[in-house]
Specification:
This protein is an alpha/beta fold. The protein is built from twelve helices and 15 strands. Bound molecules: pyridoxal-5'-phosphate. Pyridoxal-5'-phosphate (PLP) binds next to helix 4.
C-alpha cells in the first residue's frame, strides 16, 4: 500500500553508525531507524544473541513458560523500579496495554466510563486506541469515529491538568510522553513531571508515561522519568528495546501491575524467545558499555558544537536536547533538508515542519559527531535563507 513517503534509497548493510546503499555509497545515520538502533547496526552482541537463540527455539507462545522473557521482565522491573511487565511487539501495542490498564483501574474505582487525560501534540501510535489518544488532528484525519474516553490538554501546563480535573469527575489516569518526540522534541519544564506525579497522587490517578521513544538510554538515563527522580505507575517501551528486533513492553507498579489478569489481554508473539533474547542482549550491552553516560555526554557535545557553529544563523530559534534526543528548531519550514542531507550522505529527520530531529546511535564516535555537525551546519547555512 502507498503508506509511506519513502526516500529514494535502499540500504543493504550497516555497521555501527554507518549504512551502505545498493551502490555501496556510505551514509552516516543520525536517526537510528527512528530511535530504534541505539546500539547501532550489526552490533556483535545482538547478532550473537539472535544467532544463539535461533539454534534452539524462536517461539512457543505465551501458553508456556519463556525463560528469557522472565529474565527480561525481572531486569526491566529492576531498572525501572516497576513490579510487572507485559510484552508485545510495538509501541502502539504497549500503549494499548496501558490504556486497558487505565480503564480497568477506573472501573475498579467505580467510574462508569473512565477517561484518560492525554496531551495535545502527543504521539502514541496508529492503532485506533492510540490514534485516539494522540493529540494531532493531522494523524487522526479521516479516521472518525475515534475512540472516546480521551481528554486532551496542553503539554507542559500543570494548570491545564488541574482545570480538566475540576471539569471531569471520570478521569482515571494521565498518559504522556516525558519528552514529546514526534510533536517536535518538546522538553517540559524541569519540575513538570514531578508536578504531574503529585497531581496523580493527590487524585488517585495512574501516572502513565510513554517511553517508546525516550526509553532505553536515549535521553541519558534508562528511562526519561528518572531525570525527575519519580516513578510512574505505568511505563511503555518499544523501539530501542530490541535494537531492531520488534518488541514492546508495558511495565507497571503497584495496583496497576495486577489488573491485566489471565484472559484480559494477550499477544501471540509478545516476548517470544527471539525478541526477549535480543532485548536481554540490548540491556546487558547498555549496562556493560555504560551507554547511558555516553548518551548524556555525546548529546551535550553535539548540542554545544551545533550551538557554536550556528550562533550567527538568524533562522535558529533553539537547540533542545536531553541526551541524544536532539531538536533544532528553525523559524521556517525545513523539510527539504531531509533529502538534501541524504544526498550529502547523512540521515536526519524533520518533525513539526521546522524542527530538525537528530536521534543518532548512542555508540556514535567523536569523528562521526564532527562529520554530523559539519554536514548539517553546511546544509542549514546553504539552504535555509
Ligand atoms: C512516543 C511514541 N509512542 C508510540 C509510538 C508508536 O510506536 P510503534 O510505531 O512501534 O507502534 C511512537 C512511534 O514513533 C512514539 O514515538
Amino acid at each position: 500500500m502507498p503508506t509511506y513517503g519513502r526516500l529514494p534509497v535502499t540500504f543493504t548493510k550497516g555497521e555501527g553508525a554507518w549504512l551502505w546503499d545498493q551502490n555501496n555509497t556510505r551514509y552516516l545515520d543520525a536517526l537510528s531507524g527512528i530511535a530504534v538502533c541505539n546500539l547501532g547496526h550489526a552490533h556483535p552482541a545482538i547478532h550473537a544473541a539472535i544467532c544463539k537463540q535461533s539454534q534452539t527455539l524462536l517461539h512457543t507462545s505465551n501458553l508456556y513458560g519463556i525463560e528469557p522473557q522472565e529474565q527480561l521482565a525481572t531486569k526491566l522491573c529492576q531498572l525501572s523500579d516497576m513490579d510487572n511487565a507485559f510484552f508485545c511487539n510495538s509501541g502502539a501495542e504497549a500503549n494499548e496495554a496501558a490504556i486497558k490498564i487505565a480503564r480497568l483501574y477506573g472501573h475498579e474505582k467505580g467510574i462508569e466510563s473512565p477517561a484518560i487525560l492525554v496531551m495535545k501534540q502527543s504521539f502514541h501510535g496508529r492503532t485506533m486506541g492510540t490514534l485516539s489518544a494522540t493529540g494531532n488532528p493531522k494523524v487522526q484525519d479521516g479516521f472518525t469515529p475515534l475512540l472516546g474516553g480521551f481528554i486532551h490538554v496542553d503539554f507542559n501546563d500543570i494548570d491545564a491538568i488541574k482545570d480538566a480535573l475540576k471539569q471531569h469527575n471520570n478521569i482515571a489516569a494521565i498518559f504522556l510522553e516525558p519528552i514529546q518526540g514526534e510533536g517536535g522534541v518538546h522538553i517540559p519544564a524541569a519540575s513538570y513531571l514531578n508536578e504531574v506525579r503529585a497531581v496523580c497522587d493527590q487524585n488517585d490517578l495512574l501516572m502513565m508515561v510513554d517511553e517508546v521513544q525516550t526509553g532505553i538510554a536515549r535521553t541519558g538515563a534508562w528511562f526519561a522519568f528518572q531525570h525527575n527522580n519519580i516513578t510512574p505507575d505505568v511505563c511503555t517501551l518499544a523501539k530501542a528495546l530490541g535494537n531492531g528486533v520488534p518488541i514492546g513492553a508495558c511495565l507497571a507498579k503497584g495496583k496497576a501491575s495486577t489488573l491485566l489478569t489471565a484472559g484480559k489481554h494477550g499477544s501471540t508473539f509478545g516476548g517470544n524467545f527471539l525478541a526477549s533474547s535480543a532485548a536481554l542482549a540490548v540491556v546487558k550491552t547498555i549496562e556493560d558499555e555504560n551507554i547511558c553516560q555516553q548518551a548524556l555526554e555525546k548529546g551535550l557535545l553535539i548540542k554545544n558544537k551545533l550551538a557554536t557553529a550556528l550562533k550567527n544563523n538568524q533562522h535558529l530559534i533553539e537547540i533542545r536536547n536531553k541526551g541524544m534526543m536532539i531538536g533544532i528548531e528553525l523559524d521556517t519550514p525545513c523539510i527539504n533538508l531531509v533529502q538534501l542531507a541524504l544526498e550529502a550522505g547523512l540521515l536526519i529527520n524533520v518533525t513539526n515542519n521546522s524542527t530538525i530531529r537528530l536521534l543518532p546511535p548512542l555508540i556514535i564516535d567523536n569523528k562521526q559527531i564532527d562529520l554530523l555537525v559539519a554536514t548539517l551546519v553546511t546544509l542549514i547555512n546553504q539552504n535555509i535563507q
